[in-house]
Amino acid sequence: MNPSPEGLLPEDVPPDVAHLLRRLRLRHLSCFVAAAQEEHLGRAADRLGLSQPAVTKTLNELEALAGARLLDRGRHGARLTPAGEEFLRHAVGVTEAFGAAAGALAGAGEPAAVPVRVGALPTVASVLLPDAVARLRARHPGVGVQVRSGANRGLLEALRAAELDLVIGRMAEPATMRGLSFELLYAESLAVVVHPDHPLTRRPGPVPLAAVLEHPLVVATAGTVPRHHTEALLQRQGLRLPGGCVETLEVSVARALVRRSDAVWFTPERTPQVDLDDGVLVRLDVPARGTAEPVGLLRRSVAEPAPLADDLAAILRGLAAG
C-alpha cells in the first residue's frame, strides 16, 4: 500500500474518508469523549478547561463532518446516539494513544501500560475479583487495575461508553444489553446470614421465615436482583418485607451490622464467603429455592483488542470453574 502524493494517507482510502481525515482534529475527539463520559457539556468543559460554548461549537463541527447526530443534547444532559456509541469506541482509543505518545515525546520514558478497567456489582466484587487481580499482577508486574463498583445498570452504561473494559455483573433487559455480550461465570442463590451467637442459630432444623422477620433485617436496595429475590422468597410464604429494614448494597456496612447486632442479612450466597469460612458469620438453614441468579462477564460485543483485559477475563473464568 503506497502513500498518497501528500504522504499522509494510503492511496486506497475512499475519497469521503480521506476528506474526513484531513479535517478531523484531536480537539474534536477530546470534546466528544469528555461529553460522552461526563454526559453533560458543562462538566465536559470544566474537565477540558474550556468554555461550554467552545465545547458546543467543536461538537457541532464534528457532527457536521460526520453527517450524523452523535449526542442528543438538552436539559437532561448529553446522551449518546447509536452512531455516537459506535464512534466512542474508536475515539477513546485514539485519545488514550495520543496521550501516551505525548508523554513519551515529553521525556516521560516508556509510556505506562494502560490500566485494566473493571466494573463489579458490590455483592460480587469481593467474590472472585481480589484473587483474579492478584493473579493478573503476578503475571504482569506493575499493571494498573481500576475497579468501579455500582449498580448493574450504571456499570453497563459505563461499559458501553468504553469507560470500562469488562464488568462482572448480571444480565439486563434487552435495551440495556444492546452492543454487549454476557458469559456465565456462576449462578448463586440467596443466603440468610447472622453472627454465630444469634438466637436463630439455637433453633433446631430449618428456620421459618416468619421467625426471621422477628429480627432486624439487612436487605439490598429496591430495584436490584437480590432485593427482588428476597421479596419473592417472602411472598411465596405469604409474607411481606417489613418496614424499618436497613437497605444497602455496601457489603462492608451489611457485614458490620450483622456481626455487631442481631440483624439478619439476606444476601447472594457467595458475598459473605470469607466471613463464613472464618466462622465470624453463619448461614441459617432457610430454604431459598427459586432465587438462583446468574453472574457473568459482560463485555462490548465488538471491542478493540485489550490483551490485559482478556487475561483478566481468562483468570476469572478459571477461578469460577475451580
UniProtKB/TrEMBL annotation:
InterPro entries assigned to the protein according to its UniProt record, in alphabetical order: HTH-type_LysR_regulators (IPR050950), LysR_HTH_N (IPR000847), LysR_subst-bd (IPR005119), WH-like_DNA-bd_sf (IPR036388), WH_DNA-bd_sf (IPR036390)
Domain HTH lysR-type positions: 24-81
Record keyword DNA-binding present: yes
Domain of life of the organism encoding this protein: Bacteria
Keyword DNA-binding belongs to the record: yes
GO cellular component, one term: cytosol
GO molecular function: DNA binding; DNA-binding transcription factor activity
Pfam families, per database record: HTH_1, LysR_substrate
PROSITE patterns associated with the record: HTH_LYSR
Keywords, ordered alphabetically: DNA-binding, Transcription, Transcription regulation
UniProt-listed SUPFAM superfamilies: Periplasmic binding protein-like II, Winged helix' DNA-binding domain
Family statement: Belongs to the LysR transcriptional regulatory family.
The protein, known as: LysR family transcriptional regulator
Organism for this UniProt entry: Georgenia thermotolerans
